[in-house]
Amino acid sequence: MKARTLIILLGLLSLNSSAQPNASLLQRSMIWSPGGENTVVFRKTFTIPKVDKITAFIFADSYYALYVNGNYVLSGPSRFDPKRPEYDTLSVNSYLQQGQNTIAVLVYGGISNGMRMKHAPGFAMMLAGADYHIISDSTWKCSGNTRFKAAVAKWQGLDENINATNSTGDCLGIHFDDSTWQNAVNINENLWGPFFPRSIPLLAEKEVKCELKLPVHVDSLLTIHFDRNYLLTAELNFETIEKTELRIGNTTYIADPGFHSFRTFDSFGLIDASCTLETSAPITIQNVRFFNRIYPFERRGRFFCSDPVLNRLWEMSLHTLEQVTEDGYQDCPWERAEWMGDAAVIEYPLTRVALVGEGNRLGDPRLIRKMIRDISLSADSSGRLKAHHPSDRFDIHAYIEDYSCLWVQSLRDYYEFTEDTVFVNEMWPALTDLMKWFLEQRTESGLIRAREFVIFDNPLKYLTCEGAALNAFVFKALNDASFLAEIVGDNTNAALYKKSAKALQSAFNTVLWNDSLKLYNASTTHEPTFHSALIPLDRGIIESDKRPFVMNWLLDSIDQASQSMMTYTHFWLFEFLYAQDRPEWDTKVLDLIKARYYNFYRTDNIGFTVAESFSGDRPFHNFGSAAAYFMSANILGVQVNLPLSSNLVIIKPQLGYLSQAAGTVVTEHGLMHVDWKKKTDSFEFSIVIPDGKKAIVYLPAPSEKVYCEINEKAVHCTRENRYAVVELSGGRYKGSVRQK
């Protein structure tokens, strides 16, 4: 009977390991330490009759590290707003044994940083087998007075503090004596919103090799080198003959004389492909291992061309994107925050064309869906959405109006590439509240008065005014909202948003148009800027009769515009130039990349990551990867046609000065393989299109009259501008377009 106190028969609760648990049951099992400490270790020893399809379900506020029988298993959960917590699910068969087992869980509670919100601490866990389960309750032992001391929350993560002096043993190990520990207490589960299963895959943890010969003696400082920058955790075994304080990454470990082993749980980023280990007394490191814990993407996209600079920059950009992608699209290792603008403009587009998610998810949309949902939970009573969430940060960057517009754009992008109407309906209340807030900011002029486009290169950044860039953002957001309203069947708001967009466009083209300069003023009180040309062009607010003036001025000033703009804004600049669809502008993009991105692709950039600014400041940031998207989408030339149900891909290579480009582009329809070779009097190619799909292929024509051959047969092609155009179905093709 004693053993049965550790086991609750599943038949009583209709639970089995092949299904998700009753989320409310897991939530009702929230426990904590009776002492109320913020850092607590929980332990449970139990007996199981056999190991067969055993699944663990676990949640903690704010952060946990799970050990089973002394073996590290997992850290989590994914970042969350307490209004909508998500629990983790994983098989633990390989960690368990028939008979007695021990679970130990370290939980850091009360954390507030760029990834988490300060909240009541809590922990819940369920272990479900074929005919039994174990659940967190008052039989679990706990202590808030272990070697794991209170973590110091930093914007970028946690400073962990471990004091192993006078230790009674490893409280996460299998043989630790917890008999003197207190029993946990049940806590109010209503402090959290309803529990949901994790909406993204568990993170991948892959070992990364360092350049270090072991064992190694360290007197005070050791620099450990890697082949490039990574986001890492560390596991260290060492010996010391005197008390010492050791620091690696964000973790401080205090040790008595003897052998020690510990693991860091929060990630830290490298700079210049190295990290340092500092110790206050000599130690001997017997073993050290580093683990790269990131989102489980697989890089299936490939890019190669005749210019090695572009090849290196593409590889660096993809590596950077992979490393700043954990349980959310992040900006850099020194913030690790989910910034809406970063994901909408750079990270999600690049993901779609180059990476495949776990389960062969093409153009994996789960991270952008999570971010859209996370941001929606930040809405205040007025309907405004934060620029990043979840976090408690409320400063000048808490609310960014153009990022809110990009939230609407991302919701539309997500829908168009997934056709997930259910999620749009879920987000609909947040969207309507946001658009209501924007429409309430209209002035008598008909323009929106709010903070102008908040990016560092905008001369009007942070200025509250009737700004051209911000009004252009709102115009597109209204059109995106109208499109989505039709998807969810909200005809009233569809009409309202469409009408409001037209009114805003009319006001914009009347109030801000500077007729003497044939340009748009940056605001009602400021002269034109490059931003008051580029952003309105991109957002489509400019009336057709005025568009040529603005476009030609920007093209005439493209070098000055590029010099005044940072990495982030260059995404729109490159998009604008490629939209000209002329050889000289295709080449100009490549010239700008080579001129402006020099500090990234130079061979002495041993970190192999791109930076936030062209100067190289903050050299591990997603902003610098903007150009890589165009290498796949424009140089290789593969883009998905919308609506997605058309099963159509547009293939239009824009090579500029390149003589060759080849690679693989990820699309929602499958992997597209292309190989282009440009010669004086011909254009040679090979294309692989997935079965059941079709493509309209624009082949650069070397002259006005051409002969097109595909798979050794002459084919008829139509002419469109500088291209010979053919339509192909799924299959493999090889051919050429030659001068007649």
Task: Write a concise synopsis of the structure shown.
By secondary structure, the protein is an alpha+beta fold. Helix content is 26%, strand content 30%. The protein folds into 4 domains: 3-146 and 166-201, Jelly Rolls; 205-294, Jelly Rolls; 308-626, Glycosyltransferase (Alpha/alpha barrel); 644-739, Maltose phosphorylase, domain 3 (Sandwich), CATH 2.60.420.10.
List keywords for this structure.
30% strand, Jelly Rolls, alpha+beta, ten-stranded mixed beta sheet, Glycosyltransferase, 26% helix, 740 residues, 4 domains, six-stranded antiparallel beta sheet, globular
What would your notes on this structure say?
- With 740 residues, the protein is of the alpha+beta class.
- The protein has four domains: 3-146 and 166-201, Jelly Rolls; 205-294, Sandwich (Jelly Rolls), CATH 2.60.120; 308-626, Glycosyltransferase, CATH 1.50.10.10; 644-739, Sandwich (Maltose phosphorylase, domain 3).
- 26% of the residues lie in helices and 30% in strands.
- It contains 15 helices and 42 strands.
- The strands form nine sheets. Strands 27, 34, 35, 36, 37, 38, 39, 40, 41 and 42 form a ten-stranded mixed beta sheet that branches. A six-stranded antiparallel beta sheet has the order 5-4-7-2-10-13, with no helix packed on it. The chain has a six-stranded mixed beta sheet with strand order 11-12-21-20-24-18, with no helix packed on it.
- The protein is globular, with a radius of gyration of 28 Å.
